[in-house]
Amino acid sequence: MQASLRTGSGRQALHLRRCFASAPPAAGRPRTAMASTAAAAGAADKQFPPVVSPQWLAERLSDPAVRVLDCCWYMPVHGRNNHADYRANRLPGARFFDIDGVAADPAAARGLPHMLPSEQGFAAAMDALGITADTQVVLYDHLGIFSAPRVWWTFKVFGHDKVAVLQGGLPAWRAAGLPLETAPPPSDDHMFAASAACAAPPAGGSAYKARLDKSKVRTLDDMVANAASRREQVMDARSGGRFVGTEPEPRPGLRGGHIPGARSLPFPTLLEAGAYKPPADLAAAFAAAGLDPARPLVGSCGSGLTACILALGLYQVNGSLAAVYDGSWSEYGGRDDVPVSTLPVDP
């Protein structure tokens, strides 16, 4: 089914619908489970669901109001290259969103990976991708559910509500028998247009207007203060071993353990076969970790990426956007002047 395609025709939309109608469900995920997830997400956001199925997207792929972004990103352990993967296989018409490129400049990031860009940088990136405030944005990655939720959260904190993640990502799209685009992108300038625009936003401003919701972004000082006050619950998406300091950190020079008071909720707990579990199972996972979705929650992880898997999972449960500690353990674990716990459950 893979082919070199371009979007924009009713004929292609019909072809996609026919492909899906004759295709099996996404690997490991029955259609009923995917439908229940989408239904619960729709209850949280009737205007635009936070998670959409391959069928939902296939039926809308030729709609000019819809923009699809490939957000693939990997840890070194994955042994893959996101640039090469985008060039080789992508959803028809998908543009590339480089998580490390649409990010804070080096001075503002202070050596931390893929920190949030400035309002000006994000707005310029949106202009480069042809996205307006009314665009319906659908995000996916190549691992199922991994890096796309970080971009979802980024759009949300900059005020763009019409954004969703493709349930199961590119693997689910492929498993459904839907076509992929395999021809090389037009050029590197086209592929990295958003990153270049973010790095050098126009002096006169951008057509897209971004407004950062600072109430959803936590800093090191916020986390140190919260370790004492316990005013907000902290959910840690890293593995259990990293949480208690028995497993080495993938980034050199970081301490082991966690922010005092945090609760361990490794992000794979929310997933099954590379897709989100149904909302009822997500709610049960938060409860089992000792987290109350009705109270304020902050996500943390290694670099602010997989914390957003938890944030999107929580959104499917309670319809509220969680705050995220942007620097996460890359910042906190690199300091020797902040408190750290290695207890499985803090008092």
Automatic annotation (TrEMBL):
One cellular component term from this protein's GO annotations in UniProt: mitochondrion
Pfam families named in the record: Rhodanese (PF00581)
Residue ranges, annotated region (Disordered): 236-259
InterPro entries documented for this protein: Rhodanese-like_dom, Rhodanese-like_dom_sf, Thiosulphate_STrfase_CS, TST/MPST-like
UniProt entry keywords in alphabetical sequence: Repeat, Transferase
Superkingdom as given in the UniProt entry: Eukaryota
Residue ranges of domain Rhodanese in the record: 62-182, 228-341
GO molecular function: thiosulfate-cyanide sulfurtransferase activity
Entries under PANTHER family matching the protein: SULFURTRANSFERASE, THIOSULFATE SULFERTANSFERASE
Name used for this protein in its record: Sulfurtransferase
Organism from which the protein derives: Chlamydomonas incerta
